[in-house]
Amino acid sequence: MKKYAIAAALLVAACATKPPPAPPPVSQPQAKMTPRSHPHDVAPRPEKPESPPPPYAIQGPLTRELADAYMDGQEAELRQRLRGSGVQIFRLGDTIDVIMPLSFLFDDRLQGVSWDGSGALSAIASVVQEYDRTAIQIGGYTDTTGSAQSNQRVSDSRAKIVADVLARDGVPPGRISARGYGETHLLVPTGDNVNQPRNRRVEIRIVPKIDA
Predict the structure, then answer these.
(1) CB 180 within 8 A of CB 139
(2) What is the pTM of this model?
């Protein structure tokens, strides 16, 4: 009997230390795993929208509503390319005036356009070729030295020379007009026979061709 009692005691002790059976696993939907971000990771930048085409690449007619921005672009290009040249640029409404002193533009020794003047005209030609919705009006002016008739002829000739250079540099002649104004329209009002360098000049007026 003692032997049976010991066996029963050992069986009870074994049952007391054995852990209860684990419950059957319950299937759970797997969560979607995402990689952890590194502290130095940066979110990708959104793509920049495509830059709008430059003003001279407008499609369709050039309306009055578009003319202001169109001429803004042309003025900015001219100022950039002529910076430091001594050429003056003025803006009045939708019109751009480029004023070139004769002392800069012409070389009396060569009886023609100077080296600096040729470079400036080439820069102007490259801009107005891009902005092809404009007309180019060239005016020649003198001071009051000499006769009015002589000054008229000289101004006509100088305006034509500038027109020829722009055409040679690629501006379609149909967009260009040239006219001399002699000793009229003085920048600095003077009396007769006054040597005033500021009055001796060529002006290039750039005007938008508005489509009706």
Answers:
(1) yes
(2) 0.72
